[in-house]
Amino acid sequence: MIRRIGLALAAPALALAFALAVTSAILAGTGHPPLEAFGWMWDYGTKPDSIALTINLATGYYLAAIAVAIGFRMNLFNIGVDGQYRLAALVAAGVAGAIHLAPILTVAITIVVAMLVGALWAAIAAVLKVKRGVSEVISTIMLNYIANAVIGYLLVPGRLGVNVQGSQGVGTKVIPPSGRVPGFSLVGGSQTQVYGLVVLAILVGVGYWFLLGKTRFGFDLRATGRSESAAIASGVNVRRMVVISLLISGGVAGLIGIPNLLGESYSYSQNFPAGIGFVGISVALLGRNNPVGIAFGALLWAFLDNARQILDLYQVSKEIVTIMQATAVLSVVVAYEVVRRYNNNRHQREVARSLEKLKSGTVPA
Amino acid sequence: MLAAPAVELRGITKRFPGVVANHDIDITVRSGTVHAIVGENGAGKSTLMNTLFGMHRPDEGTIAINGEQVVFGSPADAIARGVGMVHQHFQLADNLTVTENIVLGMEPTSRFGVLAMRTAQDRIVKLGRQYGLEVDPEALVEDLGVGDRQRVEILKVLYRGARILILDEPTAVLVPQEVAELFDALRELKEQGLTVIFISHKLDEVLTVADDVTVIRGGTTVAAVDPRTTTARQLAELMVGSELPSPATRDSTVTDTPVLRVEGLGLTGKDDRQLLSDITFTIHAGEVLGIAGVEGNGQAELVETIMGMRTAAGGTVVLGDDDMTGWTTRRRREAGIGYIPEDRSRHGLLLDAPLWENRMLGHQTQPPNVKGILIDASGAKADTRRIVAAYDVRTPSIDVTAAALSGGNQQKLIVGREMSGEPRLLIAAHPTRGVDVGAQAAIWDLLRDARAKGLAVLLVSADLDELIGLSDTLRVILRGRLVASADPAHVTPEELGSAMTGAGDES
After folding, report:
1. CA distance to partner chain A, nearest, from residue B276 (Å)
2. Which of B9, B406, B483, B498 lies in the 20 to 30 Å Cα band around B320?
3. DSSP A82-136
4. What is the pLDDT of residue A282?
5. Which of B305, B329, B345 to mutate to test the interface with A (most CBs of A within 10 A)?
6. What confidence category does residue B507 fall into, taking pLDDT thresholds of 50, 70 and 90?
7. d(Cα B132, Cα B35) in Å, to the nearest integer?
8. What dihedral angle (degrees, nearest 10) is formed by the CA atoms of B497, B498, B501, B507?
9. What is the end-to-end Cα distance of chain B in Å, rounded?
10. Chain A residue numbers touching B406 (CB-CB < 8 A)
11. What proportion of chain A, given as a percentage, has pLDDT over 70?
12. ipTM for the complex shown
C-alpha cells in the first residue's frame, strides 16, 4: 500500500524536480540567481493575500481539469472546455442579472443554466462525432472560435450586454446581491475572501470520484477509455457513452466561471478570465485524472501563476514560470509512462515468482 | 569431412520477466535438412527463434552459423548471414503487388535512382521456378489466398539471399491441401542445399517432412529424435512430459430443445460487400455446433452479429423464445449468452485493469458485480477469487493487471467469467488459441462439462481436431455462407479441409 502511494507520488515529484532544474538552468543562463528567484516567489506566494488568491484561482482550474479529465478517462480530448465555460458564464451572467428571486433559488438557477449551456455547446461536438465521425479534437477547437464569435455577438448593448458605468467596456447587467454567493475569510490576516463556491468545486471533485469509481456508468466509461473494442464486446454502447460523457464534461466546464462570477466580478465582461480551459488540460495531466491529484495540480498551478507576479519587480521575465509549467507537464507525462511500465514489469515478476513456487511444490496462500 | 552444421546453438539462455524463457538450449541443425522444433504453446519456441533471428540477444550461450560463431545485434545482421524468417502472421501490404511486396525495403534501382521493377520481377519468377514457389508477380496481394501469401513470404526471404529459413508455425493458417504443397516446396528447398528450421506443434506434419526433430519443453531442449523411428504418440509425450489430452467428446447430450435459432442472417460490409448471406442454423441445449472454415470467411462476423456488435442486414436471431434480432449487446449478454472472443486482448480483457475489474467486464450489470447502479467491489473480488481457484488461474493475487498473466491463464479467467451466471448459450471463438497444452485440456473439459449441463455452444475454431473432437454438429463456412455440413463422428480433417476451400463435395 505504502509502496503504491510512493509510486504514485514518484512521477509528479520527478517531473517537478526536472522542471525546477530546467528553469534553474535558464535563470542561471540569463544571469539571474535561480535560488534567489525561487525565494522571492516563495515569499510572495505564501503571503496571506496570495494564498487566498491562489485558492480562488485554483477553484476554476480545478473545475476545468475535472471537465477535461472526464473526457480523458474515456480517451476523449475535450479541448473545447474553454469555449464551453466562457459561453456558459456569459449566458448565466445574463440570466442571473435579469432575475430577482430568493437568493438560493437565483444561485441554483444560475448554476443550472451554466451547466446546460456548457453541456449544449459540448453536445455539438458529441453529435458531430457520433453521427459524422468528426474527431472531437478538431470540432472542439473550432467550437472555441465559434464561441468567441457568439460571445462577441451577444455581448453588445441591447442583447445580453449593457454599458459598464465609468468605462468604455460592455458587460452583462450586474448581478444583484440576492444572486451572489458571499465569500469567507479562510486565510488569517488576508483582506481577500475565498469564494463561497469553493464548496462547489469540492462537491464536483467528490462527485467525479464517486461517479467514475463507484458506479456502473463509471465502469463503462473507464472500460471504454481502456479498450473501446473490449467495451463494445462487453455490451457498452460506445456512441451513447461518447454523448453522455461529453455532456457531463461540458456541464462541468460550464461551472468553471461561476465561482468568480457570483463571488467577485458579478458581471461577464471582456475582462472575464479567459484561457482557464487550456490550463485545465495541463492540470488534468499533472493530476493524472485523479480528483486529489488534480487538486494539488490546480493549487500548484495557481500558486505559480500568483507568485510569478513578483518577478517583474526584480526585472526577471515572468515567462520563466510558463516554461516551468510546460516542462512539468511534458515531463510528468513521460514520468507516468515510465512508472506504468515499471509497474507492469513488477506485476509480471510477481506472477512469475508465484509460479516458480507452485512448480517447486509450495502453493502460495 | 562433413560440412559444418548450418546452425549450432549452445547453452542458449534468455530471461524475461514473467514469461517462459529459454535455458540451456542445445540444437544442431545439419546443413541441407528440414529440422523441426516442436513443443507446446509457451514452451519457448518463438523466443528461441527470435534469438536466432537477432530480435534480441541471449543472456548466455553461443550461436554458430556454418561453423562460425556470430553475435546478432538485429535481424539485419541475421539476414546478412543468410538467415531469414517467415513469421506466423504475414507481414504483407495488401494493396501492393507480389513484386512490390518482395522488394519492399531493398528496391532495385538503375542509374539515376529509377526503380527497376522489371529486373526484380525476372528474378522473382526465376526464384519461384527454381524452388517450386510460383506466384504471379503482378498480382495484388489482397487477391491472393493464404497459401499464395505464404509463398510470397518465403520468396521475400529467399530474395534477400537467405540460405537458412526459419518458418514459424507455417501450417497454422493452411488447410491440409495447402500444407501438402508447402511441404513439396520445403523438400525442393532442401534438394537445392538450403536449410529449413520448421516450428510446429502438429506432430503428424513434423513426422512427414522433417529430417531431424528437436523437442522443447519448459524452455529447454529435452530430446533430439529421429522422425523415422519415432511415433507421433512418443513425440507428444516428450512434448507434454505426460499423457496427451484429447478433445474427443464421448456420449451425445443433444436434446431437442432449441436454444439458438438463426434464420436467414445476412450482413453487409463497406461498399455493400456481402459478409454473411443467408445463414441458418439451430443449436439445441446440450449441443456443440462447430463452425469450420478457413480464417476470414465470415466466422468473426457471424459471432459478432450474433453478439449484437454488428447490425444484421436481414434475418432473425432467436434465443429460447425471445427474438433478440434488435437487441443491444448488453441485453443479449443479460439474457444469458457467454462470449469467449477470438482475440482476448482486444475483445476480452482490459489489460491495464486488475483481474477483479476484468471479472466484471461484460457482466457489469449483473450480480455479484453490482448492486443497483453501484459497483459491488467486494462481491466482484470474492467472485474473482472463486474463479481463480475453480478454474486454476495461476496468479499471486486478483489485484495484478490482466497483462501480467500468461495467455493460458488469461483465457481460463475469461472462460470462468463467461461460465458464471448460468449462461444458456456459450459462443466460443478459438477458445484454446495460443494457450498451453495444460490449459487447453482444462478448457476442453470445461466446454464438455458445460455441454453436459445443457448449455448450447457455438464453437468456432481453426483447429480441426478440436472442432471434430468437441462438436456434435459441424457446419462449414465459405465466403460468408454455410456451404456444407459434416458429421464429426465420421469426417476426417482432410475431408473437412476440402469442404473449407470449396474444393470437395459436400459430405
Report:
1. 19
2. B483
3. HHHHHHHHHHHHHHHHH----HHHHHHHHHHHHHHHHHHHHHHHHHHHHHH---H
4. 94
5. B329
6. very low
7. 20
8. -110
9. 55
10. 351
11. 96
12. 0.83
